[in-house]
Structures are given as C-alpha cells and as structure tokens.
Design brief:
Elements (H helix, E strand, L loop, with lengths): L1 E3 L4 E5 L2 E12 L6 E20 L4 E21 L8 E5 L7 E14 L5 E11 L9 H8 L3
Antiparallel strand pairs: 1-2, 2-4, 3-4, 4-5, 5-6, 5-7, 7-8
Length: 148
C-alpha cells in the first residue's frame, strides 16, 4: 500500500514472504568423511518506506524493514555415517533470532497502464543490522550440546 502526501512524496508499507537457502558441503576429519548441509529460512518482511517519485514515473524509496522469522529447517547428510548423525528438515528455529531489523534502499519506475492501474518495476537493496543467529553464552552452548 502506498499513501502519497503530495504528488511527489509519500509512504509505503508492504508484506513480503522471503525464503533464504544456504547449501554447502565439506569434510570432517579427513577427505573420506564428507557431509552436505542445507539450511532453509522463511521470513515475513515488513518494509515501511519513504517514497519520492516523479510524475513521469521514476521513484526512489528508503526506510526500515522489520523481519519476522516464520521457520528454520536444516538437513545434514554425513556420508559413511556409522552413528546415524544425519537428519532431514530438522526444526532449528530456536537457533535463529525471531526478529530482525534492517534498512532498504530502492529505485524504479511506475508505468501507468490506465487511470487506476500501474506496472511497477524496480530494484531494492537491503541490509540487516541484527544478526540472524542466536548468540549463546558458553554455558548455554555447552548445555545445548549436552556437554554440561
């Protein structure tokens, strides 16, 4: 939703679903003991942006973005796994912060199709100020790993 205070400036608020995936592989101990790890994060992003636009269509926007963690799943596969340490789609939501705050900078153009309809095309850049992962004290990390 966009509310224009005047012809050239206003505020916008949105709800966006964002999915982030990270996949990597490596080895533990020696090159014969390889693993693959995949993390899937889902966020509900809420940007609230100040917008400056031209009557001809180009615009610029800037403002904060609030991110709410909706889910975090991890799959870990260890080749030659005699102890069955591998797992699939394990819930790791507690290892990530449930709220994040960042900044968004964007620009683009609104192409007027009719009096009530416009096509929007643009590019946004975002930066998260808060860490995605939860920070644990040494005692909490030992407790979580079972090595109290």
């Amino acid at each position: 939703a966009i509310y224009m205070f005047a012809e050239t400036y206003g505020m916008s608020a949105e709800l966006s679903f964002a999915s982030h995936r990270q996949k990597y592989d490596g080895y533990i101990g020696n090159e014969d003991n390889t693993f693959t790890n995949e993390i899937k994060l889902n966020y509900l992003d809420i940007p609230i942006l100040f917008r400056v636009s031209s009557p001809k269509g180009p615009y610029f926007e800037i403002g904060p973005q609030f991110s709410l963690l909706m889910g975090a799943k991890e799959t870990f596969e260890l080749d030659n796994d005699p102890s069955d340490l591998s797992y699939s789609n394990k819930d790791f939501k507690d290892n990530f912060n449930s709220f994040g705050m960042g900044a968004v900078l964007g620009f683009g153009v609104d192409i007027k199709l009719s009096e009530e309809l416009a096509l929007n095309t643009g590019l946004r850049f975002g930066y998260m100020f808060s860490d995605a992962t939860t920070e644990y004290s040494q005692e909490e990390a030992l407790e979580a790993s079972g090595n109290e």
